[in-house]
Amino acid sequence: MKKRIYWLLLFCLLSLSFLLCALFSTPVYAAAEVYRVAGDRDFPPYEYVDADGNFKGFNVDLLKAISLVTGMEFEFIPMKWEHAYVSVHQGQADLIQGMKESEQRKSIFLFSESLLTSSQSIFVLDQNNTVRNESDLKGKTIALNKEDISYREISEIENVIIAEYDSLGEALQGLLDGEVDALIGNTLTVNYLSKEKNAIDLVKIVGRSMNEQKYAIAVHRSNPELLKKLNDGILEIQNNGMYDSLYRKWFGAPIKNATSNYEVLWKYTLGIIGALVALVTMIKSANNKLKRMIAVKTEEQKALMHELRHYDKLQFMNKIISSIAHEIRNPLTSIKIYTNQMPQKIDNRAFLLAASEDIPQEIDRVDRLLKEFMEYASPKKPVIATINLYDELMSAIKLAKFHMDHMRIRVSVDRQLFVTFDVSQFKQVVLNLLLNSHEALRNADDAVVEITAQEKGHEIVLTFQDNGCGMSRENLPHIFEPFYTTKEFGNGVGMFVVKQIIDDNGGRITAESDGPHQGMRIHMSLKRGDEDEA
Asked: Distance (Å, rounded) from C-alpha 468 to C-alpha 238?
């Protein structure tokens, strides 16, 4: 009898060892090639280093989006523009993330599909009615950035006075201060700087665009393979809507263009005629084409959401594994104590009975933890079911609490509330929100997250509230947009995925904050479930 108990315990321990090895063994992946990206340190909003030393801008976010859909990895190297221009030729970088295309440059570089059209415009103060186009620049003082591409063209204007500035920001300030009559510069950059200076309504564009050129990513002529990968990524983010989101984020609403009423009316007339002709043509074959387009778009959106959720899940995987490992140590410690004493107490019946009762319980405890982890980690199709809100909430908190050492979590949720939701997706939502609060509360003296639930008709409103850094009114509307983040090391995907999951499960999510350092409130309206169906 004693020998059989001993061998039974030994078999349980060996089984547990094999299970843990299978769980925590790390697969070996081939290292992905990292492409070095040269960028301008001071060319907002395309690319620039901000006051905190972070490299950001439209070009930076665009390459991050390409990285997400293609798997390519990029290392950003901000530098002065004149250094960036020669970095690819000298082998210091693999690509330049944004450059105007010209015939001279095409002899050195290969250019990607167009990111946008770069142009220059004439900017004047809103009340200035003496400068309406290029012909009115005679005898005027014009602000230019040093070594601007249009210097030679402007210098040939009769009696013109050119005032050169070290940056477009200083040139714009000169226009606002009345030092010059007009400013000629990159249209999108001056538009961005005007918005940053709250001067978007103080200036206007006159005349026509100047020096229009294709703006694209540049690689060395010997690397067409890299160019193809980039073009594939550009096409993908243009099709799935990421490009439009990034363009709105960085360029926003344009400065008004004071073109003459006649030109505006003529353009509108041509546009209406063209639209009517196109509409008549499209109606003939609209039904079949529309069905095909919807089918393709639906599949693309499904694939993109799968990638985003997978990407977001990987960000938390190490933390979750650490939490599981921490939880498993407690039952393993109990089992180890029994096994260490077993040789000395093999004849102690009371000891063996206690071991035979406690060890299976500890093994069951480990098994439950592993099942919870696998439920979160294993990808599967969403299965919406009725779940107990309190039980699943506490289960998710347990997975993450090892990393919440400085943060107190207060839960005030009725244990009899039920909602309809996919169980594993619910855990992902809770983990995202808790880890977001954890980051926001990093420097808080008394870090607290309060979780409450209220019944409202056929819905349960689940609220996460923290006393962390909060968000400004300007940033708050963007919280659910992809790649938008105010964190130094954030990826800007987590809250976007949370919203998509809640939408897929028939719920709604909103965010509130009274401002910086005023905390954050996240409200999730979830469909009420029937206890009998749980």
From this structure: 36
Q: Per-residue pLDDT averaged across 477-494, rounded?
A: 70
Residue 103 has pLDDT above 90, yes or no: no
**Contact predicate 399/427, CB 8 Å:** yes
- 133 close to 175: Cβ distance less than 8 angstroms: no
| Closest among 324, 445, 308, 449 to 375, alpha carbons compared | 324
Q: What pLDDT score was predicted for residue 477?
A: 87
In the 8-state DSSP scheme, what is residue 447? E
For 514, which DSSP code? S
Neighbours of 239 (CB within 10 A): 14
Measure the CA–CA gap between 166 and 326, rounded to whole angstroms: 56
Q: What is the residue-wise DSSP string for 143-187? A: EEETT-TTHHHHHTSTT-EEEEESSHHHHHHHHHTTS-SEEEEEH
Is the predicted pLDDT of residue 484 greater than 60, yes or no?
A: yes
How many Cβ atoms from other residues are within 10 Å of residue 402's Cβ?
A: 15
CA-closest candidate to residue 363, choices 3, 18, 1, 2: 18
Q: Is the peptide bond before 45 cis (omega within 30 degrees of 0)?
A: yes
The secondary structure of 263-322, three-state, reads: HHHHHHHHHHHHHHHHHHHHHCCHHHHHHHHHHHHHHHHHHHHHHHHHHHHHHHHHHHHH
Record the pTM: 0.44
Answer whether 131's CB lies under 8 Å from 122's CB: yes
Helix (H) or strand (E) holding 494: helix 494-504
N- to C-terminal Cα distance for the chain? 44
Of the candidate ranges 228-232, 252-256, 408-412, the one whose mean pLDDT is the lowest:
252-256
CB 430 within 8 A of CB 498: no
| Distance of alpha carbon 218 from alpha carbon 233, whole angstroms | 14
CA distance 96 to 86: 9
Give me the DSSP letters along 9-62. HHHHHHHHHHHHHHHHPPPP-PPPPEEEEEEESEETTTEEE-TTS-EESHHHHH
Instruction: Identify each DSSP E strand in 67-140 by its residue range.
Output: 73-79, 95-100, 109-111, 116-125
Q: How large is the average pLDDT for residues 236-255?
A: 82
Segment 169-227, tens digit of pLDDT: 899 999 999 999 999 988 888 888 888 888 888 999 998 888 888 899 999 999 999 99
The 10 Å Cβ neighbour count of residue 45 is 21
Note the pLDDT tens digit of each residue in 399-451. Answer: 767 666 678 899 999 999 999 999 888 988 998 898 888 888 888 888 999 99
